[in-house]
Specification:
With 106 residues, the protein is of the alpha+beta class. The protein has one domain: 2-Layer Sandwich (Alpha-Beta Plaits), CATH 3.30.70. Helices cover 13% and strands 25% of the residues. The chain contains three helices and seven strands; from the N terminus they run αββββαββαβ. The strands form two sheets. Strands 1-2-3-4-7 form a five-stranded antiparallel beta sheet, with no helix packed on it.
Length: 106
């Protein structure tokens, strides 16, 4: 199942992390929510394969530890989402469609 492109309407902002919003529900360690708004990563489905981290030309993503998460203990966090140039490479390379970039959403 891919990230919900309407997550800002369907979920509640429950926290912030390294300067970006976190959209719930969050029930650690199993549920970690969606991190980011303009560049959003669904931590619940992210496999942590690193394609987005490697391919992003402006270094939007940073690794973050997520101990005991059932999918992956590392996640690609959109820590620098304000640097995004909307190239969509991260969306294209994500094998599980865990990333959404919306130029109109901030």
């Amino acid at each position: 199942m891919a990230i919900d492109p309407q997550f800002t309407e369907n979920r509640e902002q429950v926290d912030s992390h390294q300067g970006h919003d976190v959209w719930g529900p969050v029930e650690e360690p199993e549920k970690l929510g969606i991190h980011g708004t303009h560049v959003a990563v669904d931590f619940d489905i992210c496999l942590g394969d690193g394609a987005c981290v490697e391919d992003c030309p402006v270094d939007v993503f940073e690794w973050v530890d997520t101990p005991d998460h059932p999918e992956s203990e590392l996640k690609a966090d959109p820590a620098n989402e304000s640097q995004c140039i909307d190239c969509m490479l991260c969306v294209d390379v994500c094998p599980v469609d865990a990333i959404d970039v919306d130029a109109g959403r901030t």
